[in-house]
Amino acid sequence: MKIETHINAVRESIDTLKDCLSKGIENRQRTIGFHCSAAAVDLVEIYLHQQNLIDIGLYLKHNWFASIKSASKHIPEFPQKSEILQILHEIERKRNLLCYGKPQPIQTIEETLVLFNKLKARLEALGVKV
Fold first, then answer.
1. pTM here?
2. I want to staple 128 with a disulfide (CB 3.0 to 4.6 A). Which of 31, 41, 77, 123 is the partner?
3. CA distance 21 to 73
4. Which pLDDT belongs to residue 75?
């Protein structure tokens, strides 16, 4: 997928997350889980494409990040890889709770948003712009 397509997807997810914040995150846990996960993967894919570390036709799958070991096999080496994979793993773990589990405490939803923003900041520091 083209980098611009990923950028547009991230922007859409960020806009959706902003809407969730304005409407009350406690009533939007599934939406937050899905969009934090999807945008996180898109951000990493943008970085990997920009660095020519993966082919433009390769799609990262969110479920690869359920296991750091599994993700490590699919993702080439890059600066801060272990830290970024750890954040992605935590987002994926929380995604499943938020999307498929019972209503979660607001703290869990907030933690997911914090993780997403942390990942976004790290990737922006590495040159990703959305």
1. 0.94
2. 123
3. 35
4. 92
End-to-end CA distance of the chain: 16
- Domains of the chain, residue spans: 3-125
Asked if 97 and 84 count as a contact pair (C-beta separation under 8 A), the reply is: no
Contact call for residues 51 and 78 (beta carbons, < 8 A): yes
**CA distance linking residue 123 with residue 39, whole number of Å:** 12
pLDDT in tens, 61-75: 898 999 999 899 989
What is the rounded CA–CA span in Å between residue 47 and residue 36?
A: 17
Name the amino acid, one letter, at 116. F
pLDDT tens per residue, range 7-51: 999 999 999 999 999 999 999 999 999 999 999 999 999 999 999
DSSP-derived secondary structure for 45-96? HHHHHHTT-S-TT----GGGGGSHHHHHHHS---TTHHHHHHHHHHHHHHHH
In this predicted structure, the answer to whether residue 1 has a pLDDT above a threshold of 90 is no
> Do the beta carbons of residue 123 and residue 44 sit within 8 Å?
yes
